Amino acid sequence: MKPGILIPALLACLSFQLAAEDWPRFRGPTADGRTSATELPLKWSERENLLWKTELPGPGSSSPIVSGGKVFLTSYSGYGLDSREAGDAAKLKRHALCLDAATGKILWQHEIESAGQDKPYTGQYITMHGYASGSAVTDGSGVFFFFAHAGVHAFTVDGRKVWEKSAGEKAHEWGAGSSPVLHGDLLFVNAALESDTLYALDRRTGKEVWSARGFPASWNTPVIVKLKDGSEELVVNASGRLRAFDPEKGGELWSCQAIRAAELCPSVVAHDGVLYIIGSPRGNAMAVRAGGKGDVTQTHVLWQAQKGSNVGSPVFHEGHLYFVNDARGTFHCLKADTGEDVYEERLPGSRDRWYASPILNNGRLYYTSRTSGTVVIPAAPKFEVLATNVIAGDSSPFNASPAAVDGRIYLRSDRFAYCIGPR
Rounded to whole angstroms, how far apart are CA atoms 252 and 243? Predict the structure, then answer.
């Protein structure tokens, strides 16, 4: 890893130019999967509402982001493409990619070298999602990629390298999962697996502004929470502890006892100052009121329930919390104010695993499974399956969450990127 590649002439290019319709980060502009823009297609297949399909240089679990007519995502190649014969780990390459949102044409790509030794392509989890899991984030001019121990990499949206920075050199046998987050002039990176550190970096230079340590088993993406008084908190979940920080200065504002698990992948969802958290293979959920000072376990925990998901993040809608248990394929609806179970129903393809987080559009939830297609369900306290959409000819896993812009859905599998919309 080169300690600090920097192109001063490009620093001024990293300025905010986001459009209202952009999907600039993991889980979209509001960080909770919501899009209230043009209604999305209900049904699609290889023959219906498929606008384009582009073969990718390799697999990846990162979700697409969309900004300014460009799609950004990641993949890897050279190693770990077949669990029966993984190949030579020295040939592993990670790719930062940019596609034309209108046509799917690959506009540019950069190969990223590993900073340290990668974990072998063996075991239960790394073989399911590989070596390119973090989604990019953009402000409309700069685009930022986090490749775990291969570092944080900043480009202009036209593909010119601006800087790179190491976030730690440890590699986990299960791989990485967190995506970077932009807020003002800061880029937040949860490098819990690489260095047990949460970083706040200057988005123009990559220089560290502040950092904090102590995030066991934390695969989730940080979330910015805005309180009623206008103040903001940066929230990150870790095994046994939910923590909130001052985004600008970095001091810990409060923490509370939370879900204890070997891995915490779902991102926190915030609504009206309440944080909703799910996690653990056994299934746990809880609600915590944001704000406070110090240890708020006794004062701010609103409810806890024995329901949850180990990977996909939840959605809040009209007083209810929705999520799919990733291992069992059961769809859950809870009352958001009490945690009371409204219903639990099996989804089509329920024997599949469900890694993607959903999108919410005009009262519909879009859930993508690994191999059984995308199921559309009403975001309502009565269960119904509106559609099950499968694209024939692609049997590779769909681990990534969809993106939605201008009435179009952007999906990616381990083989292809897709754009779905009315013709």
Answer: 7
